[in-house]
């Protein structure tokens, strides 16, 4: 673990917020690069990006409170340190950001939902960078293992589960970027993205060792239940669209 990444002008720079900021910056710039390559107008994108950031932040915090905070909900909910610091559950952010995107595009009509496929590489690469930040910060850590690839965290050799997920996300990002640049991207690629990530998250959760994410009595985490639900729904919609 390396929770403090480096010191700059006498101040400590922490790994997790550094990589979080880096990931959002990369996502924004990569999106602009893709729009430029595809000759797509960026009108309305700035507000969309800001809305995704705000609502994903709030959603990830809310699901953390519901799934992981247990008896400390009141304490966390009233603490500015919680809302401005660590403690996120990805799927909470994903679901609330998705709701915002649908309202922004379909109801307010401020942006074309059909262009969302061009954001998929940015989402994947940014999320993968965030997982590298998790590894350095020591959160979302893996279960005990003795494999040569194990990392030492919290007093034990553990699965580098953060890197497992990051590799999967970087692969997804590369795949969707290749589709876009080769003009092979389709309007239903967002369903493929949900399918791929849900399968990835369902798998990597089995190698997690932290219980703060919310685990039920049969050993299934909150994120795994959500992943299963999204996997079933997305596969159904994907098959329906392709048959149509």
What would the keywords be for this entry?
244 residues, mainly alpha, two-stranded antiparallel ribbon
What does this structure look like?
This protein is mainly alpha-helical and 244 residues long. The protein has one domain (4-183). Helix content is 62%, strand content 6%. The chain is built from nine helices and four strands, in the order E-E-H-H-H-H-H-H-E-E-H-H-H. The chain has helices at residues 15-37, 45-67, 73-77, 80-84, 90-107, 120-137, 161-181, 189-204, 222-243, and strands spanning 4-8, 11-14, 151-153, 156-158. A two-stranded antiparallel ribbon has the order 1-2. A two-stranded antiparallel sheet has the order 3-4. Strand 1 (4-8) and strand 2 form a beta hairpin. Helix 1 packs antiparallel against helix 6 (120-137) and helix 8 (189-204) packs antiparallel against helix 9 (222-243). The longest helix has 23 residues, at 15-37.
Short structural description:
This protein is mostly helical and 244 residues long.
